[in-house]
Structures are given as C-alpha cells and as structure tokens.
Amino acid sequence: MNLLSVITRGPRLAKAILTAKYVRPVPVFAQWESTYDCNMNCGFCNVKKHKRQWMPELSTERALGIIDQLAELGTAIINFSGGEPLLRKDIDQLIRHARKKNLFVFMNSNGTYVGKNFEKVLGLDLIRISIDSTEAEHDALRQCKGAYAQAVESIKILKKTGIKTMINTVVTKELDFDKWVALTELAKSLGIQIDFSLINRELQTIRNPKPSDLAEEQQNLMSDEKEFIQNVLKLKKKYGNVVASPKSYLMLIQRGGLEKIGCRNMEIAIGIKPDGSMSIPCSGFPAVTLNSDLRKAWSSKEANQARKAQGKYWFCNRCLFRCTSFATMLLDTSMLMDVIFSWRRLKN
User: Fold this and answer.
1) Where are the alpha helices (DSSP H) in the chain?
2) How far apart are CA 87 and CA 37, in angstroms?
3) CA 102/CA 72 separation, integer angstroms
C-alpha cells in the first residue's frame, strides 16, 4: 500500500469508519469467500467438507453487481478469500472492478497459483500468503506436495510487483518455537512481514450450524493461547516490524475473545458467501444467511436483530476469529492505529 493509494482512498475509509462508529452501521470491511474450490485439504479448514452448501457460485455478472452494491453501502476494504480465490477464473475482473470503485483490495492465498497467474493479482493492495510451518510439515499439514516451495516462489514474484505481501501463519499445537523462529527468519530474508494467527473454532462453511458441527480435527490442532502470546511477543522483541501481529490482537486473546471485549462485527463488517448470501452475524459463524439484494439484507429486520444479539450467540464463547476481530478493531481508535502501524512496509 503506497502513499498515493492511502491519499486517494484513505478519506473514504476514514469516513466509513466514522459513520459506522457514530451514525449507523456501515459494512466498511467485506470478507468475501469468493470460491470454495481449493487444491489443498488442511486439517483446520472445513471448506471441502461443506462447500456444496454454497453452490452454485456467483456468475461474473452477479459478482460485479455485488461489488457495486458494496460500494453504495460504503464498503472501503474488500478481502477475497476462499478456498483458493485464484481458482475463481474471473478473480482479476473482480479485483479491477473493486479498484475502480475506489476500494482497498486484499486477498488470502495459499500461493500455489500466483506464479502462473501473477497478472491477475496486480490490482491488489495486500496479499497474505499462507505458510504454516517449515517445508515438510507445511506440505503435510496442507496435504499438498510442493506447497511450501511454491508459496516462497510466489512471494519472490510478488515482491517484484510492488504489492504489499505478508506471510500468514496459522499456528497449530504442532508448531514448536524453533519453527516460529524459522518462519520469521524466512520472512526477514524475503523482506516481508509475517502475521501469526490462532486456529479458532470456526463454522464458516456451514449453514445454520449446531454445536455438534464443531470440527473435532480442528479442535485437536488448537494451540495454547498463553504460549501463543508469549511467542509472538518474544519474536516482536527480537525481529521488530518483521512480525506484524498487532498487540491489540494479543490483548483480545488475553482478555478472553470478542465475547468479553464486545463484538461489533455487524456494525462495520459484512460476510459474503460464494453463492452471494450474506452471513449473519459474521463470516466465521453464519447462524442465518440471506440470499438477496445486499443493500436490503444489510438493513433487514433479521440483520438488525442479529446486531442486538452479536456476542451472545452460543458460538460466540471465546471467539478469536481473526477477520471478525479485525472488523471490531476498526471501531476502536487505539486498536485501529495499532493495526495500521503493525502493517508498516519493510525495507530490503
């Protein structure tokens, strides 16, 4: 994200946040699961198990129309995730259209398709490439041979384009501290930042989830929260800006999650599924979905009821879902500044 980008689109972001904070709900941050197609089979992800619940995926025409609706609603940041978003053939068209609407455009990717399709991501402001351990362990965790090497090569390609690039590491209990250090050294050697995230109980691929839907495999991979905080702080002390994980995120974990701090996701964020549904109350835990005009859905009776109940659903207990946390942080000035300053560009 260069200075010109911030100058031209920053006022839109600031206005959207202030409106959401003091006037009315605005979906400043849109988390869009653009496809559930993926070439991996990660133990902490439910995508392949439940992807059929969200078929068929949106046509290009409808997807572009959703971007138009988001712009009308005041959205300032859109994050394309999946699955693997680069498996959506028209993702470059969606990126370009979002930029035309003056939005900041982010993406989460496993990095295996960037090398052959780097032209498709040229409009991005930020791309987070997943690397979860050292080479053998990363490939095993994601059940994809060569995933680590392809991700590293993709980062090298992205560095040449000028796109802000981060390593995103989902921390499992199998990641000992030596591997944390190795990943941080990798980020340092590549001249980028690394962001560590906890595995959280998530139900994002399930319509109207029940407690029995919580994935046992996911639960078994969850790491110790206190150890996670300690390790991030150790690395921040040694490596400085190489570690992007904001201290506000650590504070949220320490205090017991969004349920304790106060979730405000539905005042400032919108979750969109591959079929165009809007997630209620959030992209991580859809209790209800509305497959209709997003502008109507955002201000619907169901959405307003969910805003009153946010943080009180059965699945909100100790919620540490990263995207939901990020959205809530946008409404707290000190947390917002912490996030912004944690994303400083490293110099080679």
Assistant:
1) 3-22, 47-50, 60-73, 91-100, 135-141, 147-161, 177-190, 216-221, 225-239, 247-254, 258-261, 265-268, 294-298, 301-309, 322-329, 333-342
2) 7
3) 11
> 250-278: string of b/e by CB count within 10 Å (b at 16+)?
bebbeeebbbebebbbbbbbbbbbbbbbb
Q: Note the residue count of the chain.
A: 348
Cα 269 to Cα 281: distance, rounded to the nearest angstrom: 10
What distance in Å separates the CA atoms of residue 100 and residue 293, rounded to the nearest whole number? 21
For residue 148, give the DSSP letter. Answer: H
Q: pTM of this prediction? A: 0.91
State residue 348's pLDDT score: 42
Residues forming a β-bridge with 32 = 80, 272
Say if residue 83's pLDDT is above 70: yes
* Per-domain boundaries in the chain: 3-342
Which residues face 279 on adjacent strands? 271, 289
For the cut 60, the answer to whether the pLDDT of residue 216 exceeds it is no
- Number of helices followed by number of strands (H, E) in the chain: 16, 9
Q: Helix 322-329 to helix 333-342 angle, to the nearest 10 degrees? A: 120
Cα separation, 342 vs 337, whole angstroms: 8
Quick: pLDDT tens for 9-40.
Answer: 888 899 999 999 999 999 999 999 898 888 88
Distance between CA atoms of residues 155 and 23, nearest Å? 40
**C-alpha distances in Å from residue 139, one per residue of 65, 90, 147, 195, 197:** 37, 27, 6, 19, 18
Joined together, the tokens standing for residue 166 give 């981060």
Q: Domain 3-342, what architecture? A: Alpha-Beta Barrel (3.20)
Give the distance, in angstroms, between the CA of residue 117 and the centroid of all CA atoms in the same chain. Answer: 21
How many other C-beta atoms can be found within 10 angstroms of the C-beta atom of residue 232?
Answer: 22
The mean per-residue pLDDT over the stretch 130-150 comes to 92
